[in-house]
Amino acid sequence: MAELPTINLALYAQTDVGMVRSGNEDNFLILDLSSGKSWTANEEEPHELLTYAQGYYGTLLAVSDGMGGALAGEVASRIAVETVRDRMLQLQAHEIYGNMPFPERMRLAVEEANLVIHADGQTNQAHRGLGATFTAAGINNNHLYFGQVGDSRAYLIRQGDICRVTKDQSLVQQLIDAGQITEEEAETHSYRNVILQALGAHNNVNVEVNAIALCQLDTLVLCSDGLSGKMHADEIAGIVNAAGDFKSACQSLINLANERGGEDNITVVIAQFSGSGLPLPNGLIEPQSLARSPDTPTEINWNTGAKTDPLDQAGTQANNQAASNTDAAKRATEPLPLPPKQATPFTAPLQRELPERKRTNDLSDRVEPITAVFSVEDFETDLSSSAEPINPPTAPLNSRHTSPLTAELDGAPAKRDSSANSNGSLAKPKNSKTNLAIFIGLLVLGITGLVFVATTYVSRQKAESEAQQLESVRQNEESQKERQDNIDQVRKKITKLRNELGANTKLSLQNKLSDWLSKLNDFDRQLDELANKSLDETKNVCADIENKIQKIEEEFNSAQGLIPRRNVNRSPVKL
């Protein structure tokens, strides 16, 4: 019996309440899917999960940041990690769902957690408005799969360099993607704490899934925004690379976040991968986005299998039965690989220490963390009230350099008054102190006027700029919705026609039915490829597919001897 390539894990997880909050609404999950052993923030540290050899089913790591009034945030994050833990184990043991690809099982488990949290918020008045972010990293074979909801983050450190492999589902991230603001501007933006998705906020959630191939000694860091909001990525890498073990690395990261304010709860999970099952690092970290598979069900039905669009499941199950039985037998009979005798890569220095990198932006003044989830439409209001005015100079005028003006006035020669006496005598000059007071008064008025005009102009410009940014985001949201509506409409037509074709039992049409069904599958794949296409391109592709669907319908009706629908006279008969 061939042995599975070994992948060793060394890890640690830690959560901290921070310096301001009274309760901890964060949670984490460490789950060995092969043994069923798990570790969450509510449980004691299990020694057997700090270093182990990964089994057949792989591993799942996650961080969740709860939100809501009273204890609702703590409840939401706990439900999130426990539901995902339970569903992942149940899905892999199911005779139908166990055949789904690993990333799709992970996606489905997170979606189930969303339904459970949303239902709790709807039925329990004390938990009204609860929600949670969720960032998961699943390890299966030699691949990492990430599932993202909200703005907790995942970083990967390879050969000392760090890369963020998840994208925040936040308002400022959309502004960054649209080119409206930079990463540096996002750190101080007035809406930097607004996220657009969270588990439990709505009945449906879009779990962003991507994948990356693992390499030898890759180090994964998962964290809540209580950590990522207080330090840059290269600071995280520097601390992890310099640490002698992951426990001290977690503590050092938490300590730094607390030193910089610690306004939010702080959670961090660090894991390193090694073993014969991993190739040497190639220096490239390029996450690949994974679109939702059309075979992934929209809801779990443990009794009958996938509850999704009807697709002739009998044929699909027949085609997959042989492979399913082979895989099931393999999982049932092949023993898990034994841990190596020395599986402790975290006891040695993790990576070479990098030179300190200087940053110009300090995140230590980050204000109150996220407390709610909003949609873009919530911000379609006049932003002028939120514009931050520029404070006028506060230094007193008499502290500025005014001595040249005083000297000039005091030493000026007396001028002849226009009302001089006829004998040519000079009029008495005015008091120089009075002249200076008048001059200073005029100067103050002038400066005040300039500051007022500048403040008004800058405030107006900033308000207009933010309004344009939000309008751009709103238009992008509408475009995405219209694009998805077009795709959904075509999918319904494909499903309807597939059901009609599948219900036909005429032997004379079997060859044509097979060809038509093959074309419908091609149409499904074309729709999947529209995930990142523009609205116009999506419309064109959808229109083309609809025309082809109509031709297949006409051919099908003609083959059955039916009159084409467009030729049917629906007008009343005239006598």
General description of the model:
The chain is an alpha+beta fold. The protein folds into two domains: 8-276 and 320-374, PPM-type phosphatase domain (Phosphatase 2c, domain 1); 377-409 and 437-568, no CATH class. It is built from twelve helices and 16 strands. The protein has helices spanning 72-93, 102-123, 171-177, 183-186, 225-228, 233-242, 246-259, 313-333, 403-410, 432-503, 510-528, 535-559, and strands spanning 8-16, 26-32, 38-40, 51-53, 59-67, 131-132, 134-140, 143-149, 153-158, 161-164, 208-213, 219-223, 266-274, 288-289, 299-301, 305-307. The strands form three sheets. Strands 2, 3, 5, 6, 7, 8, 11 and 14 form an eight-stranded antiparallel sheet that branches. Mean pLDDT is 78; it is low at 306-355, 380-431 and 565-575.
Beta fraction: 5-15%
The tally of domains stands at 2
CATH superfamily grouping of the largest domain: PPM-type phosphatase domain
Structural class: alpha+beta
Q: Sheet with the most strands?
A: 8 strands, antiparallel
The CATH class label of the largest domain is Alpha Beta
CATH topology of the largest domain: Phosphatase 2c, domain 1
How many separate helices?
12
Low-confidence stretches: 306-355, 380-431, 565-575
Extended strand count = 16
Compute the gyration radius: what is it? Answer: 33 Å
Shape: globular
Q: Average pLDDT, to the nearest integer?
A: 78
CATH architecture of the largest domain: 4-Layer Sandwich
Order of helices and strands: EEEEEHHEEEEEHHEEHHHEEEEHHHHH
Q: Distance between termini? A: 83 Å
Question: Level of helix content?
Answer: 25-40%
